[in-house]
Amino acid sequence: KGKVKLVILVLWAVSFASAGPIFVLVGVEHENGTNPLDTNECRATEYAIKSGLLTIMVWTSSVFFFLPVFCLTVLYSLIGRKIWRRKRKNMGPNTSIRDKNNKQTVKMLAVVVFAFILCWLPFHVGRYLFSKSFEAGSLEIAVISQYCNLVSFVLFYLSAAINPILYNIMSKKYRVAACR
């Protein structure tokens, strides 16, 4: 129990430490001679752009996306492989039903990984485009980045709720258990 609390504490500490630089990266900067009340846009600070912090944050963010994708893919592949092999070993009267259930479970594992990627990829693409828009000075890239942000906001919430929805769609056993 103590180890679990320690792991949770370390995870929260790493989360705060990795998110901390955002306070230096963005802010409302006023152009010289303009009225500060006319500024209504929060954007990357000049310091973040020139120091390379914005690029570092994009790389850090990418690691925090690809690492979970890698872990999900590897671990769910191992689970799927174990289920697939178990199917071949246990031949008996209910083999076809078991095969169908195993195939459905493996499919569900793949769909869960795909849903995670689909829900979080636009955010990371938007972040990457956001950083590149300052390097290139491109308004078009900045606009595309903003659209990625809009899509991301919806997908963030969907990400939190998608797994039970997928289980309900893909598994009759889950639907029956949920109705009880």
From TrEMBL:
The chain crosses the membrane at residues 56-79, 108-130, 150-170. GO terms for molecular function: growth hormone secretagogue receptor activity. Residues 1-167 form the G-protein coupled receptors family 1 profile domain. Residues 1-19 form the signal peptide. GO terms for cellular component: plasma membrane. It is found in: Cell membrane. The keyword Repeat does not apply. Keywords: Cell membrane, Disulfide bond, G-protein coupled receptor, Glycoprotein, Membrane, Receptor, Signal, Transducer, Transmembrane, Transmembrane helix. Gene3D superfamilies: Rhodopsin 7-helix transmembrane proteins. Receptor for ghrelin, coupled to G-alpha-11 proteins. Stimulates growth hormone secretion. Also binds other growth hormone releasing peptides (GHRP) (e.g. Met-enkephalin and GHRP-6) as well as non-peptide, low molecular weight secretagogues (e.g. Pfam families: 7tm_1. It comes from Chelydra serpentina (Snapping turtle). Coiled coil: none annotated. GO terms for biological process: hormone-mediated signaling pathway. This is Growth hormone secretagogue receptor type 1. It is a multi-pass membrane protein. It comes from the Eukaryota.
